[in-house]
Specification:
homodimer; 333 residues; alpha/beta; 434 Repressor (Amino-terminal Domain); Rossmann fold; 3 domains; six-stranded mixed beta sheet; 13 helices; 41% helix; 17% strand; DNA-binding
DNA sequence: CGCGCCGCGTATAACGATGGAAATCCTGGG
DNA sequence: CCCAGGATTTCCATCGTTATACGCGGCGCG
């Protein structure tokens, strides 16, 4: 079922059918109707593969996220799928597990030539990995990491958001604010949020106690639980916890609960991402809420605007955020 | 950068380069090495679009899920991406919101000719919608709904799983077991799990009280919370709750907590899906755990095995499941 | 010694669609 | 009645790959 078949059926040339399909201006009404009838009758659908071979575009953007299991990324993916659909684009999904090797693979475009662009949320990727990129498809970066590279980057102001979160804890009279989630090994991923934590403490004239920084292997519930347990086992009893993300915060709250510590009376907790899950626990979670819809829209627009190799200045786009205060800091009201 | 360029550079014909790229058997070592050198030197990568136009395959399967925000589907999507990658396939993602209109659109293949197959998890879709399907790409169905249609269907034994869950509650001495999550309007989606609930009560010689069935609009935390609240407001105080899925269960537990009811002492709760989230609440959630990895593998294999229009008998594939007992029924141990 | 086959490589035609040039059809003016 | 000139439609090349058919030596065999 191709243009040829329709052309045969309608008794016209292939190109005329193509003109009808593409709403070409100079086609008589009569001809348009006649061709359209054949199209409908045969149930013709254009073969996008062929069209794209010819046009050089595929109508597909790839989205590479660390992990779909994390609701923040799942929710973001959902928004991006919708934002792309609004531009008649579809999304090819991949996840990297946050591992540098896979991130490089994705960025080098192992699947190149099928996608028009790439939206990448890197975790371990280093700037040098992207510099070597000889690929021509546009890339947009998401997330906390900052790179001095000629690509658009969309993120909230992580330092300000973290500072705000910690300030909120301090305003409640807390003094020993732990930070959960500085990645073990590479200290990069949590750098900005850690910086915000430090700044807020400094501003308040407090000393940032490095022993209250707990490293994690990953960014899941279990990692948060392990980090919290390690902190308590080491004899530290902070009166507040600021976590790298909500999952870590929730894992930490579970451990606090197991140890008989009350949230927020004994330990106040703030997370990051504002995932739905945090709104339905026994203690709802105070969290930094990034504007996911905005990030999604910007990411799609940014990548599409660079399609034809259009090289405008790379931009840092700051998405909005706000701190949603809930029971894990305020208690039941 | 195409085969032609490489051919020119190596001083051979286009097809010979193609033969080298595809590991065609009858190529001399010397020739292979010479061509390979040119390939490396020029950094050539095959254009998959063109390859697929020629071969009639795209190397892409579409995955259409109700919603990515639900961690069950997000986790399943992650597994499917991995399973597809094992076959050198990638996944094109879409979500339908569980709305019939969008499910039809997806099944009719509005994006046809870019994908080789479709893995669809329908919610409202009716059998007749699929019968009208004139598409040629293979489809595999996932999930609870059962259709008498010539497509493979992969799911756990929902009736048995639900029966098992309710039996577990009964074995703990509970007698008034509510069911949360029968979809308002179309009663289809929860049919099998509801059936299992009924069977387990019957077996135990209890009467299934329809007033303990609470309808929901969707399948999220908020829906579970609303349903639980409605049940309590209506003056019913079950001593156990079996929820259509974990999110509904967790939403319900939140409401129980707000009303001062203890889980599991006052009300025991069982969910369905075994999402990670359920393992880290203040009260961990007993849940039916489907074998997601198996479902994902089977879905991918099933769809790929039907690629060339190979028409073997449609199959009902039952994935395994087990009931994971946690605090929401057993209490802290 | 010549024939036919085998192994290796090449030339050419698809795959389905589109862009641009060429061909054709009108219409109206001279 | 012919032709210019614009509006339509057709023809042809092309995107990058792969399938098919074929060319071309060399070698075994009768």
């Amino acid at each position: 079922m191709s243009l040829k078949d329709v052309a045969l059926h309608a008794g016209v040339s292939v190109k005329t059918v193509s003109n009808v399909v593409n709403d070409f201006p100079h086609v008589t009404e009569a001809m348009r109707a006649r061709v359209q009838r054949s199209i409908d009758e045969l149930g013709y659908r254009p073969n996008l593969t062929a069209r794209h071979l010819r046009k050089g575009r595929t109508g597909i953007v790839a989205l590479a996220l660390p992990e779909l299991g994390n609701p923040y990324f799942a929710e973001l993916a959902a928004e991006i799928v919708d934002a792309a659909a609004a531009h008649d684009y579809t999304v090819l999904l991949d996840h990297t597990g946050g591992r540098r090797e896979r991130e490089i693979l994705v960025s080098q475009g192992f699947r190149t030539r099928v996608i028009d662009g790439l939206i990448l949320s890197p975790i371990e990727l280093e700037a040098e990995d992207l510099e070597e990129r000889a690929e021509q498809v546009p890339v947009v970066l998401l997330g906390e990491r900052e790179y001095d590279l000629p690509y658009d980057h969309i993120a909230i102001d992580n330092v300000a958001a973290a500072r705000e979160a910690v300030r909120h804890l301090l305003s409640l009279g807390r003094r020993d604010v732990a930070f959960l989630g500085a990645r073990r090994g590479s200290s990069q991923p949590a750098r900005l949020r850690l910086l915000g934590w430090r700044q807020a403490l400094d501003e308040a004239g407090l000393v940032a106690d490095d022993r209250l920084i707990a490293a994690t292997d990953g960014w899941g519930h279990a990692d948060g639980a392990a980090a919290m347990a390690a902190l308590l086992d080491a004899g530290h009893r902070p009166d507040a916890v600021f976590a790298y993300n909500d999952l870590i915060a929730i894992g930490a709250m579970r451990v606090l609960h197991e140890r008989g510590l009350r949230v927020p009376e004994d330990v106040a907790v703030v997370g990051f991402d504002d995932v739905v899950e945090g709104r339905f626990g026994a203690v709802t979670l105070t969290s930094v809420s990034p504007d996911k819809a905005f990030i999604a829209r910007q990411a799609v627009e940014s990548v599409l605007s660079r399609l034809g190799g259009a090289r405008h200045e790379p931009r840092r786009i700051h998405a909005g955020h706000c701190l949603v205060r809930r029971e894990s800091t305020l208690g039941r009201v």
